[in-house]
Amino acid sequence: MLMEEVRIRLLNLESVADLSRSGNEWDPHLLEQAFGREMGWKISNIKRLPQDCEDSVIWKKANDGIFTTKRAYQECCQFQDCRDQDVWKAIWNSKIHPRVAVMLWRVLAGCIPVKENLAFMKDKDCVLCEEGKESLKHVFWDCPFARALWFSGMFPVVNARAIGSDLKELILFFLQGIPRNDKWQFLTFVGCMFEEVWRTRNAVLFQSNRVDILQSRVSISKRLEEFYSIQEEQLVFGTNTKRVETYLSWKIPQSTTFVCFTDASWKQGSAGLAVGLVDRASSRSWWSAKWSRAESAMEAESMEILWALQMALEAGIQSIAMASDALLVVKAIVEESFPPCWKARAVFFEIWKLVKLFNSCSFVFIKRVDNEAADVVAKTARIDGHCKDFINREGSPFVIPNYLF
């Protein structure tokens, strides 16, 4: 609808190119004429990809721009009670066996086909006790058979009037009184008990078996031992440990003539960019800083590297090493892969383009503690919002860490 209204005023408008200047830049005058001052200003702040780049579809709700079914589901559930999220977070714990987690999810999400949810079933009575209507809460909590298993388990529940109108509230109520390190054991017990209750219900309904509480208790105990032993094996052999990579092997080539230290300070859309340059031959150093807008901290870190490369080329520098404490940014530049922030993609395209203009351009990761000087300058530029251009002055000598050579 918006574009149709715009085309009435601008008959020659056919594509984004008609709103652009040469060089792949927005035309602010045309944007204001087409969309008004406020909307035109917002559009002009959208960063453009280089002309030789292919368009790509972005999932805006994710920082990396990648769409997944899980993220779509989370977006659909964003208005749910936050307490529900606490339940699911506890269930999908890495210590809980997937089979147990799925059973818990099926019951608490209402995916179990109890008679109450089946319209074609005329007989709604519980086959385990023949006293109440077969609903989720009745089968897994109110039924005397279920209550006997709750009471005789490793986490005995005595109070018959526990707070909660449904099973999710009951589980949350119980979790509040259990130590954090024991919650996965409690949920494993509940999952095994749910599975045994449902298995017994089906055996009685379809095979005419009799209810045997003692046999059900033995079955639950065996399953608990199996799942607990699996968890112990994972802890012993370290199958749950995460591999941590280090990038200290990145070195500055000995032939490099200039070393550049960069850092950014970002908060609520405001960014301070700092660039420190060292001439290895004369040991002279310079500081440059400016204030800018950025959508995220990662975009600010990439903008400061882009700005440093631009100044180096303007100064005629052909051999340079870029040192940054933003590990993900440095890694993405070196590997020529997109960072986990889709809003910074346009900046990364510009960085890769400028790198090719140097005779020698390397990137290294520097520890944050060794980049404090740049951090102080960046914070100063962010706080002093009037600094919209750069400040260029000679600074104190840099100390280049030995591990970079």
UniProtKB/TrEMBL annotation:
**Alphabetized Pfam families for the sequence:** RVT_3, zf-RVT
Q: Which InterPro entries match?
A: RNase_H-like_dom_plant (IPR044730), RNase_H-like_EbsB-rel (IPR052929), RNaseH-like_sf (IPR012337), RNaseH_domain (IPR002156), RNaseH_sf (IPR036397), RVT-Znf (IPR026960)
**Membrane-spanning residues where?**
none
Q: Which CDD domains match?
A: RNase_H_like
Q: Where do the Reverse transcriptase zinc-binding domain residues begin and end?
A: 67-150
GO molecular-function terms, A-Z: nucleic acid binding; RNA-DNA hybrid ribonuclease activity
Q: RNase H type-1 domain spans which residues?
A: 262-381
| PANTHER family in UniProt | BNAC02G40300D PROTEIN (PTHR47074), REVERSE TRANSCRIPTASE-LIKE PROTEIN (PTHR47074:SF11)
Protein name (Swiss-Prot/TrEMBL):
RNase H type-1 domain-containing protein
